[in-house]
Amino acid sequence: MKESFLEQLLAEHKNSLDCPSPDKITAFYESLVSFLFPDYGNEKITNKESLETKYELLQQEWMTILNQRCKRMQNPAKENASALFNKLENIKIQLEKDVDAMFSGDPAAKSRIEVVKTYPGFKAIAAHRIAHQIYENGFQLIARVISEYAHEKTGVDIHPGAKIGDYFCIDHGTGIVIGETTEIGEYVKIYQGVTLGATSVKKEDASTKRHPTIGNHVVIYANATILGGNTIIGEKCIIGGNSWITKSVPPHTKLYYDSKNKHLEERPVK
């Protein structure tokens, strides 16, 4: 029994992918965020030569991760290895907009540095912006490692496949779930406990759009649940806390739970 068990394990070890450890991937991710936002980490770079050296070291770390990831498998996405660094400027610009959205959207925020250093919302969206680019380039396992690392650290679970527009504000954050095929517009604000999920968890629906679409300038308050790939929340909607939504909501609508009459109430946004 022992010998057959060990033989089985040996076969699994031999056939396993040479994917780098999660610790190595997340260490690279943390270094990358600190490079983009000096206030996030502890490393201060004071001259151009040191900055260029750090940039090159990060590129080398990334290529080491990809070479290890792809060594024993054919992966056409390997040709996209440089895409992450080609998009770094765009990622930085997007994240600066997200910081602006969180700072202006939270009266408790005293500075942008406070948002970068302490807000779980920033940490969650930073991980997503980077993981989403990696996911789009075809390195989905690496992207998932980063997104789950952020999930563990912040309590915010954003699938790297989700598409999120500029000026995204996560307030508090704990318990937020954003599914793989979710599409979120610009200037959207989401509070703790919000779920943007699917009405079906059948494996055969994996390749379909299962999660909702959120328009521009939408606010979704705490513990609201919005489900379904055909569910569209129109622009400038306000979704009240504890709402349960499985159908589309027209633009400029305020939707909230009427506790007295125990149903969802729709009113136009004034």
From TrEMBL:
Gene Ontology process terms (BP): amino acid biosynthetic process
Keyword set, alphabetical order: Acyltransferase, Amino-acid biosynthesis, Transferase
NCBIfam families, per the entry: EPS_EpsC (NF041874)
Protein name per the record: Serine acetyltransferase
PANTHER family named in the record: SERINE ACETYLTRANSFERASE
Organism (species): Marivirga aurantiaca
Single GO MF annotation: acyltransferase activity
Taxonomic classification: Bacteria, Pseudomonadati, Bacteroidota, Cytophagia, Cytophagales
Coiled coil residues, start to end: none
InterPro entries associated with the record: LbH_SAT (IPR045304), Ser_AcTrfase_N_sf (IPR042122), Serine_acetyltransferase (IPR053376), Trimer_LpxA-like_sf (IPR011004)
SUPFAM superfamilies listed in its UniProt record: Trimeric LpxA-like enzymes
